[in-house]
Amino acid sequence: MGLRDYAMFLLIASYGLRASEIVAISLEDIRWRQRILHIHQRKTSSPLELPLTNEVLSALVKHLKRTPPPAPYRRVFLRMRAPMGMLKPTAITEAFQSLVRQSGLSIPHQGPHCLRHAYALHLLRNGIPLKTIGDILGHRTAESTSMYLRLATGDLREVALTVPVVTAASRRRNANTR
Question: How far apart are CA 47 and CA 29, in angstroms?
């Protein structure tokens, strides 16, 4: 389960995928030679092709070598406990919550979706345009993407202009120069 969970959370952190997209990944969605991962974005019904990084590729290979899906299953991530079968998005949430508890970290929103938010913020901090971030996350509107970035007020402070202090003396000087 450790290799499986690591691969799942790495996919979320590296690409901002949803739990529903993770559990839907099948062996056919991975083009090993081209190093491409094909994602079916369920919310928008649009396809997304992502380049497989070395780290993600390695995690997927380790997971599949250790626990290859038995026939007739073609999904990459399956239940590890009986009964064998499809993994549900809630299982990813439960695994994430368990790891957060074990880590002792204070994470206010203890669902894997917080990794998706962190990924969006990472893209913003690296100068990626809002439209591109929205496309990667599978959002139809800029408002949806903005919701992911609303917590970036610290980043917005860095680009804010300073407000000049206006004193009575400076007002008089400005009035005399007109």
Answer: 11
Which is nearest to 92 in space by CA: 162, 173, 26, 17? 17
Type and span of the H or E element at 39: strand 36-41
The tens digit of pLDDT for each residue in 25-77 reads 999 999 999 999 999 988 778 889 999 999 999 999 999 999 888 888 999 99
Burial grade of 41 (CB within 10 A; 0-12, 13-18, 19 or more): middle
- Cα separation, 20 vs 135, in Å, equals 17
Catalytic residues: 18, 43, 113, 116, 139, 148
Dist. CA 53–CA 30, nearest whole Å: 12
Residues belonging to the chain: 178
Peptide bond preceding 83: is omega within 30 degrees of 0, i.e. cis? yes
CA gap 121, 178 in Å, rounded: 46
Q: Is the dihedral of CA 68, 73, 79, 80 positive or negative?
A: negative
Q: What residue type is assigned to position 54 of the chain?
A: N
What does the pLDDT look like over 143-161, one tens digit per residue? Answer: 888 887 765 556 555 545 5
